[in-house]
Amino acid sequence: MEISKRESEEKPSKKETKIQIFKTLFRNNIRQYGMIIALAFIIILFQILTNGILLKPLNITNIILQNSYILILAIGMLLVIITGNIDLSVGSVAAFIGAVSAILMIRMNISVTAAVLICLIIGGLIGAWQGFWIAYVKIPAFIVTLGGMLIFRGLTMVTLKGMSIAPFPYEFRKISSGFIPDFLGTGNYHIVTIVIGIILSIFYVLWELKERKAQIKYNFDVIPKEFLIAKLIALLIVINVFCFILAGYEGIPNILIVLFILIAIYSFVTQNTVAGRHIYAIGGNEKAAKLSGIKTKQTILWVYVNMGILAALSGLIFAARLNAATPKAGTGFELDAIAAVYIGGASASGGIGTVIGAIVGGLVMGVMNNGMSLIGLGIDWQQAIKGLVLLLAVAFDIFTKSKSAKE
Amino acid sequence: MSKFILEMSNITKTFPGVKALDNVNLRVKKGEIHALVGENGAGKSTLMKVLSGVHPYGTYTGEILFEGNTCKFKDINESEASGIVIIHQELALISYLSIAENIFLGNEQQSRGVINWRDTIFRAKDLLEKVGLKESPNVLVANISVGKQQLVEIAKALSKEVKLLILDEPTAALNEEESENLLNLLLQLKEQGISSILISHKLNEVSKVADAITVIRDGNTIETLDKEEDEVTEDRIIKGMVGRELVDRFPKRKSNIGEVIFSVKNWNVYHPLNDERKVIDNVSFHIQKGEIVGIAGLMGAGRTELAMSIFGKAYGKKISGEIYKDGKQIHLNNISKAIENGLAYVTEDRKNYGLILEDDIKRNIVLASLGKISNKFVVNKNKEILEAEKYGEKMNIKCSSILQKTVNLSGGNQQKVVLSKWIFAEPDILILDEPTRGIDVGAKYEIYTMINQLANQGMGILFISSELAEILGMCDRIYVMNAGKITGELTGHYASQEKIMKCIVK
């Protein structure tokens, strides 16, 4: 009698604590997960509306290729926005670099590798130029980069003399239209892609376990085993299903590898390095950061150099995809990148934001673009709906923020 | 009708954790200049905020009678409507509007939303004449001196038909001639029947113009001296201001003082925006191992500027002078250099300069010493949590966890986070700038205990404070600063509040 009574008392209490842990986990991460849930919802919605076309292998590949350059810009823009600044010039810079690359490769016949390298260096120098005015001369970033937007758009037209230059060499085009080779493949499916999915899954599981082990070693509370397993299974399904779908077309696009590496590097830099901490601290409170010994000017300069390099990369990828350098390339890219970062939960006043968030934000916009085009919605309505989504996403963000502040 | 224009009785105002005013009484006669004196933080400004409706009716207890009527001001507009105008220490003028526009700001000379410029200029001229300001009403406020701006503020008050004018430290930023003019103006206004309350630290001015003086200390009214009845001298006022007994407000410490570890010689600093203006004038001082050295002085005496200019030139222009540490000259050209050389500076303004409010406790604590928890460039997040938890416990930071955002902490706990940050950096010289400002008594004691421990471990501590009792209770040696200069040096045994106050009001 006694024993059974105690058991019956204990059980619900244990369950309750687990629910509580789940609740706090949910509350602490709602801003992060909120957008992922929204993305999943949007995907499901358009999957239904388009009668299953959205998640067809060809279309997924298309979404990746169409949005790669915006996502790359969004990564750089995230760092800029975390420091509390902005960069309006990235679209023009991307166009300018596209033009320069055309001159180098098509007119001057310089090798692809050398040309790409030169272009990235020029991008870095452009970033340094703008960063100098912002960090050292203290001109507001909005003005400096608004100037940059006009300067580099103008220089693009000067470089191209108002015309398009085409076509690019084959190897260069491969950057954004190629796929990884399938040396294992025999039939309809791209085997290497599936293998990569499995390898990634293994690495991911091992990494999670290692983290958990370290936390246990330091005697920290860890999330209950059930949650961890649920989380692992969910992510493994997403990774492998995604790879499996891609394998149904031509496999993993080259550009996806580039994106993956960039996301991994920048996530690590922002979350786990001293430099990342400095960037967040500057955005959170520049004066306090300065008085804590952080070289604020230098850091801001490097953030813009980084933005310049990524804008150059984005410009190259866009030129390769279009197979031409055109004076109008990259128009409006800056606004898409900025919107992606804000939708992804970054704060307009700086100090808050994540790389994954920015990528999710970019994908929300990308999937909506694609889905709305598929169901035949005109570009006019697409614009309006995208604007509304941006507004609602940020409103949601402010709402959760003020709610958590009350607690 | 009574002879008093204003009677404030039994005013009590509490902030969370602090009783700022405790049964304060203030009675101002019609047509007199009434001075309100007391140390920084004694409650003068709070009392004036209660009076002017910044702290609205209902947030305090007690009664206010103005011209015999009970006042229940909800905001500053209501108090102004009944004729009470307050002029704050930081002037509320808009630099890029003209004198006339500033005078009638919020009270524009207009009909149906259209400004009548002729009336505006005409009335402004009239008011400027009254306050004795010889400037055209069309001059931008940005282009006139602080002294003249002060007069514009008074003209603005007169335009509102002021009956009781409150001036908070009006002469703090003025030179002698300007101060003289301003005081004369107050006397003139008095003849026209305008009463005023003058808050000032400059006792010579107070004893010169005031008809009555009320002394406030620790949120209590100590006494009201009337020129007609009492003999009012500066010494008499000082005694009222500081005459409190120190009963165990400070933890005991046996100091163990070693050799000189830090010294500054012939330090000169100019204002960052105006390189004509000298902010720090030939200051020299030193700190010994295990010693707590106080810097006393009023706000604006240059103490913060001195500390920040030493801390990697975080303030000022054209800085000259020498810094020695352990006998060797060092050059601290930027803040990271200063930190490398073992300096730490705990700012007086923890919200704007000390904390990243959006970040959690642990990220704030490790911010100044990320190198200590990193392997090359990679932060070891587990180590970070361990260290932060250690300090959270050691400093007794009251929080739900070290993952709590600092914006949600109380002032005392925020201060403990800032202190933790700098103690974690393991400095040799710790500069504390008003470390207990706005903190309740309990947290103060904890922070004092912590400071004593650090000194006993051999740290040299520079303790800047406007609270004389605190300086006397904590420090082995005290420098007094006034107008960018060191005007006195006292050792702990010989120092007294009277002596310090004398150096300050020199």
UniProtKB/TrEMBL annotation, chain A:
Q: What is its main location?
A: membrane
State which residue ranges cross the membrane. 33-54, 60-81, 88-106, 112-135, 142-168, 188-207, 228-249, 255-280, 301-320, 340-364
Where found in the cell? Cell membrane
Which UniProt keywords are given for this protein, alphabetically ordered? Cell inner membrane, Cell membrane, Membrane, Sugar transport, Transmembrane, Transmembrane helix, Transport
- Would you say which domain of life the source belongs to? Bacteria
UniProt GO cellular component terms: plasma membrane
Q: Note the NCBIfam families from the entry.
A: GguB
Protein name, entry field: Xylose transport system permease protein XylH
Which species expresses this protein natively? Anaerovirgula multivorans
TrEMBL record, chain B:
| GO CC annotation, single | plasma membrane
Give the way it sits in the membrane.
Answer: Peripheral membrane protein
Q: Name one GO molecular function term.
A: ATP binding
Report the SMART domains cross-referenced here. AAA
- Alphabetized Pfam families for the sequence: ABC_tran
List where in the cell it is found: Cell membrane
Protein name as annotated = Multiple monosaccharide ABC transporter ATP-binding protein
